[in-house]
Design goal:
The structure holds two protein chains of two kinds. Chain A has ten helices and 14 strands. By secondary structure, chain A is an alpha/beta fold. Chain A has a single domain, classed as Aldolase class I (TIM Barrel, Alpha-Beta Barrel). In chain A, helix 5 packs parallel to helix 6 and helix 7 runs parallel beside helix 8. Chain B is built from six helices and 16 strands. Classes of the chains: A alpha/beta, B alpha/beta.
């Protein structure tokens, strides 16, 4: 069930959502068995920022009916140490590596794109635009003009595919998607987590250390399906669909809604090998429907 | 804490429940793991019931729950019978409630063994185990494996929970309500023991955050080395979710990867937000 995505040949259409699988940590827990049965057709890194980040204070998790809310805060080693320590380790994976980056200004994103353009281990870049531009105060991915300006700045810096990871917390997601495509995005990925909040029943104060968090898991699947469908209808470039995928049926739904690839995220927390099962179920469903 | 760790098979697997035994307020769940290796003392598993656990009906529990191993051993004379794993469960929420309902023949889904367990005592010291409530679990498997045995001090809320003390050998018990053993905190027993023998012992502790932090402080005051098995809310158990971080002197670490057993010296506090 091989698939071509932005000129990259993949063995199947199932990848991971950024920040939902740490291949280096998983190798410490599972050893080389992870490489022998690597669950994703391409590996997307956790978000890398220019400066190292500790992430948000705990508590960082809140369980929901059929889902999870997290407030992790993008902890990462920063560009320099990620490029020096993690990229060589990720190159040992049996699949292509996509690096997800985020900047607090267009210049920061430009620095990240330039740095990874120079690295042969990286097959494509994903831009996390779910954060505010500190210069304008606007969430980059919530505003078509911001996304346009960002792509115009960074598109000339690399010939590698640029995937824009859209935020679902925007008034008009297809408008943002069209702006990204017009400014040179190679593909779009959605949905990121939906903004939510939980209160500590004892105090009435926000439970999460970051006060609000991102909702994921099967509880967001219907929203993902609608947003993926509206974006796929609005653009010509390929779409990576994600949000609550637990089964081959869920993946097939997103593909029927217009996705070329499907990412598994929260379900990998429940079973690290979940994506293998999703890919095999999807393969079976596609084989049956082809008859 | 331990430099070596036993690796987990990749992926979630089904282990049938073989027994569910009531020990006062606690349940000991036994299951038969045909694929996994025997865990190290202090390692943990992510557990979920194979039915009525998230998914279809979209109700909690949704995520698996992290449990230290209470006991483990080969079934039969060789490895063909697999490993019997035992877990200690107290019904305190939707996940533990569902686990307590499981009966022989029901399915338990597990990922593990995960994390890094206890390391041998340093410098010829003897092990002194300090447990609180359901946190006594990893101390039982550790006591089983320590060649020289180990003294155990265990604290519980009341008599129903103090029934769990029988899971360890020759434990000295404290209860909050005075119904069994010393009327007071287990850390009061620890303080007495450290007055006597701080230079002879290495402390191994697991229990509620307030107990662990008192253990940490007492051991620091008496210059006794201590290994603490901490708990933190976890979604995955293998470093993917970044949800279980605890603050150390070097910043946040993922408890599922660097712990759950940490050297008390790396912590400024053991009062971890759950």
């Amino acid at each position: 069930m091989s698939v071509s995505f932005c000129g990259i040949d993949l063995e199947h259409p199932i990848i991971n959502g950024s920040g939902t699988f740490d291949a280096i940590a998983a190798r410490r827990a599972f050893g080389d068995a992870l490489l022998e049965r690597f669950p994703f057709a391409a590996f997307v890194s956790k978000t890398v920022t220019v400066a190292p980040r500790q992430g948000n204070p705990p508590p960082r998790l809140w369980e929901l009916p059929g889902g999870l809310m997290n407030s992790i805060g993008l902890p990462n080693k920063g560009l320099e140490r990620f490029a020096a320590e993690d990229l060589p380790a990720l190159a040992a994976l049996p699949v292509p590596v996509i690096v997800n980056v985020m900047g607090f200004s267009r210049e920061e994103v430009a620095a990240l794109v330039e740095a990874f353009d120079a690295r042969s281990e990286v097959v494509a870049l994903e831009l996390n635009v779910s954060c505010p531009n500190v210069e304008t105060g606007l969430v980059m991915g919530a505003d078509p003009w911001e996304v346009s300006a960002l792509l115009e700045r960074v598109r000339p810096l690399t010939s590698k595919p640029l995937i824009v990871k859209l935020t679902p917390n925007a008034t008009d997601v297809p408008a943002v998607a069209r702006a990204a495509e017009a400014a040179g995005a190679s593909a779009l990925a959605l949905i990121n987590t939906l903004r939510g909040m939980a209160l500590d029943p004892r105090t009435g104060e926000p439970w999460l250390g970051g006060r609000t968090g991102g909702v994921s898991g099967p509880t967001v699947k219907a929203i993902a399906l609608a947003q993926v469908n509206s974006v796929a209808d609005a653009v010509e470039v390929p779409v990576v669909g994600m949000g609550g995928v637990q089964s081959g049926r869920d993946a097939l739904d997103l593909m029927r809604a217009g996705a070329t690839l499907v990412a598994v995220g929260t379900e990998s927390f429940r079973d690290p090998a979940a994506a293998l099962r999703v890919a095999s179920e999807l393969d079976q469903l596609l084989a049956n429907s082809a008859v | 804490m331990s430099a070596e760790r036993t690796l987990a098979p990749f992926g979630r697997r089904l282990a049938p429940i073989t027994a569910s035994e009531q020990h006062g307020a606690y349940v000991v769940l036994r299951c038969s793991d045909l694929e996994g290796p025997p865990p190290d003392p202090g390692q943990f598993y992510m557990l979920a019931a194979s039915s009525r656990w998230g998914g279809g009906d979209s109700e909690r529990p949704f995520l698996p729950r992290a449990f230290s191993v209470l006991r483990a051993g080969w079934v039969g004379a060789d490895s063909n019978g697999g490993v019997e794993l035992q877990f200690l469960v107290e019904d305190v929420g939707p996940g533990t409630k569902r686990l307590c309902e499981l009966r022989p023949g029901d399915g338990l889904l597990l990922v593990g063994p995960l994390g890094s367990g206890f390391a041998q005592p340093r410098d010829g010291r003897r092990a002194l185990l300090v447990g609180g409530g359901v946190g006594i679990a990893p101390l039982a498997i550790w006591q089983d494996q320590l060649a020289a045995g180990a003294q155990a001090l265990l604290g519980f809320r009341d008599a129903a929970r103090a029934a769990g003390a029988a899971l360890l050998a020759s434990a000295q018990v404290a209860t909050d309500d005075g119904s069994v053993g010393h009327h007071g905190l287990v850390t009061e027993l620890l303080a007495l023991e450290l007055e006597r023998a701080a230079d002879e012992v290495e402390v191994y502790a697991c229990g509620p955050p307030a107990m662990l932090d008192t253990v940490r402080q007492l051991c620091a005051e008496h210059a006794a080395p201590a290994q603490l098995a901490l708990e933190s809310g976890m979604a995955c158990g293998f470093g993917a979710c970044f949800g279980c971080v605890v603050p150390t002197r070097d910043g946040y670490v993922r408890l599922c990867l660097e712990g759950p057993v940490l050297d008390a010296a790396v912590l400024e506090t053991a009062l971890v937000e759950q």
